[in-house]
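Lecture 7 notes: from sequence to structure.
We start with the chain below.
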Amino acid sequence: MNRYSRGVTAVTAIAFGALVAVVLVLCGRPVATADVWFYLKMGEVYSTEGPSSRNEPMLFTNGDVDPIPHEWLTEVIFYQVQSLAGFQGLRLFHVSVAALAIGLSVWASRRRGVSWPLSLAVGALFMVLSQGRLHQARADLFSIACAIAVVALALARPAALRRSTAALALLLLLFWANAHSLILIAFALAGAAGLGFVMESALGGRTTTAGPSSSARSLRALAFFCLAGVALTGLNPRGFAQHATIFTSSSEHAIWDVPDEWFPFSPLSYADNSPMLSPLAWAAGNAVLVLLLLAAVVAARAAESRRAEDPEGAAELLDLPGLMMGIASCAAFMISFRFLWMGVFALIYAARVFSHLGARVAQPTAAALTTLALVLTPGLGRWSLLMSDVPKDARSYLSTPVNHAAFAGEGASFLSEAGVEGRLFNNYTVGAYLGYHLAPTLRTFIDGRTEHYPARVAEHYDVIERGGHSSEGVAFTRLLEDYGVDFFFGVGGPGYGYVAVPTLRHLEGLPGWLLVYRSAGFAIYARTPWPVGAASTESVARREANLGRIAAYYRERGIPFDPKLGFDPGGVVRAAPDWAVAQRLVPPGVAARVSTLGANLRDDGLVLPLFIAGDYAGAVRSARGTSDPNVAVISVEALIAMGHYDTARELLEVSRELGMSGGKVAELQALSDATKGYREVQSRTLHGANNAPSN
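Predicted structure tokens for the same chain:
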């Protein structure tokens, strides 16, 4: 190995090691993957009742839809790991599986005859492609690892497949079919490889004088492997329906409405992609497309020049089965960016082509790719930190097992400790967390298991989330009545950890709903037992009991609460500042300043944090006499939130004289008119619902 080769290998190793460190540290973050919570809950069910259980422990909207055990084994594994080793053990398990997948990407490249530098380059770019999936503790971890292993073991060189290797690959398929419903990936890739072998045979590739061509033997071996694999993977609780999950879920459920999962990959414009796709992953996806095309062109030209004197070598270089799997993989992530990790198969094909062309091509390619990966490492780390909801204090990274703040955990604790019962409307992203901690006493409306409730539920969720009307003209407040919702968990604002459509203020000022808890990023409303309307006696009794439990919860802690007027954020901050800070209602400094100022509250610096906390009266008092138009804007919005529309109009006129732009004045006046109209319509709807038949 000359000095240049050693340098290339060193650069490759540095880039690979840096990316491994970044990715694994972030994979080991305090538990913040939303789906983990229903994994743990369902894992407990399947561990005690078996995978054939039809027990739905969390949702109240599932109707006649039975739980679908399409990833039951993953759920059992997660539950057992957490039971035995706690959440810290679950974090370590997550890191181990992610590390396995990364290692397999390098091993699969080496197994295809790719040089070490290029194999590590493949591993580095694979991490950039797949980091969005690797850092989530989900069943996809097993799908990624199993797919790479099965392709490397059985699909790439089926003619040379030994019995022991075939047996190992089949066992992996059996595990995969029970761990995740994406088992169809294996057979789709096998079909792509088979198409490649058919094309190779048609072109006369790998012909020998001793018998059938290598392509024909590979095709026959691949067919036997696939038949055995299909038969074996039918051994799961759902049988062969497991293989068709991607089609049944997309046709019967709402998976395509989830932008962080099923959004297509757009190579031409980053802006057309899901906001959950990092710019680096987008760039890497485009790089995969370019590399696959470049490698195919280079391989075709080189194979053509060799075909006359070495037809078998030409076919080996062209590698049509590998090319077809690369194309199929790129097609998969173009349909949905959740499959971006599958670009590894296109990378392996390209790396194999460049390796076979000799060191003069392979080494510069490895150097370029790994240098690119090294340059991308800091950016990947920054993006991952933004998307990972890790504690802001790095010292608490290892000691914090779960990032409860990412799931509005204070609200879950309040509902649990208050001991309330009934039905809860919740945001999609926190549904599993709330279900895990509150069910079966308080059941949730929706969570990440789109196949566990009818598509109609997802449609109604969208209506309620928007605060609008359904396609039939039914208002969201009427839908809440029809579903018998007892609590509304609204989220939004600067204090909420996830990107979400804000529902924080949907029920402000509406009769029949009482604010019972508030934090900076979320609010909890209880359906009151008055007016009774058409509500059942059972519902009225439950809601009365819930308000009694909530009042008792606050009374025991010395927190002011009026069961008729509801939760008063300003009164709570003044009377119990330590509790308010612990609930993330206000920052510590704000609570201290409010306590110091007392009734003479007047401080421009308090206007925004009090507004965010829902203390609208306090925000207005703090802004008294302000000459700052920016502060006046918040004060006007606070008055609108309180329903003081005339006072807001008067303040707008004063603010215009103080320098507020005419455009901003018009915008706030429009907000005032819209808020007033919205509340009037919803109030009429609610009164109408009280006189209408209830489900």
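Points to note: Confidence is low (pLDDT under 50) at residues 207-211, 690-695. The first strand starts at residue 422 and ends at 425.
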